[in-house]
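Final report, closing paragraph on structural work. Over the funding period we assembled a curated collection of sequence-structure pairs, and we close with a single example.
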Amino acid sequence: MARYTNDQNAVIGIHESGTYAGSIIGSTFWIGQVQSHDITDNEGIIDQRYLGTASRNIAQFIQGPRDVNGTLVYNPSDMRLIFWSIGSTRSVSGTSSTFAVQEIENNVRQSPYTSGALNPPISFTIEDSKTTAGTGQNFIRRIRGVVPNVTTLKASQGDKIEVNLEYLGQTLEHASGANTTFIALTRTPYLWNHTSMTLAGSSVDTAKEVEFVIDNSREGPHYLNGSRDISIPLNGNRNYTFNLTLDWEGIYAERLYRNFYKGGSTFNMTLDMNADNSAGSQHTTFVLSGCIIEPTPGIPSPFEGISEATLTIKPTTVTGSEWNSFLSGGIYGPY
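Its predicted structure, as stored:
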């Protein structure tokens, strides 16, 4: 027998079967430089007790509702999964590598999902494989019907951009054969120095850390439909949160605090990530509209060092654009 070692672990994305719009390059896609993947595979066993057994012990174990969800942490070189978290992605007409994302509501059917009905959100498959020497000894799990639930894009000083994706899945299949063939990409991920922002038209030059959170509040219902697995996830209320930590300086202080926090005025902001080696090769821009600052900004007065502020910004709508030369001629998935 052989042990599973970290260098033989792999996590990839797979396009689900169905009729997709446009052209997709390959059945698999590279998620990014995955740092960790934690799967919660709950068989929902019910401990049954009832009168008449003349015992204090559990009388019976019953197979209950089956749920699978997980958390995926990776360093992105594209915005595929972040765009899927926001809504519907499309290729921009007349280009081969430009994509746009816009919010989409429950009256639109985005993808075939795994069961093919009930206006589902965008879904895909994650394959988590542990391979080793010997026939039939691989440990492979494929989670089908994966939908992003809470997605956090984080940028910190001197570090790689990080995405934390909490997802819901519909089913988990286990196998011991060969894993799916894929190509590991060596493309440089987005970095902190690729990142810049504007807030109400002014550049933010002293940001230390940002967290852009997309929360879809999705739930997996267990209908009376003959299955232990969830049905199509329900889209709850969508919430965006943009947490910004920065050195507090005069150019921001009066305007942000007086006009936008105390005055209640809304504003727009942009988050720009430009990793281009050549024009249009690796570049993403998010536009956050109708923003307010809420709750009270954290603006302490320390006895030493630079005064720092923490702002929680809530937009009403978000759109995004990406330029990705690697995906020239294809699109991100089933839209």
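Helices lie at 80-86, 250-262. The radius of gyration is 23 Å. We thank the funder for supporting this effort.
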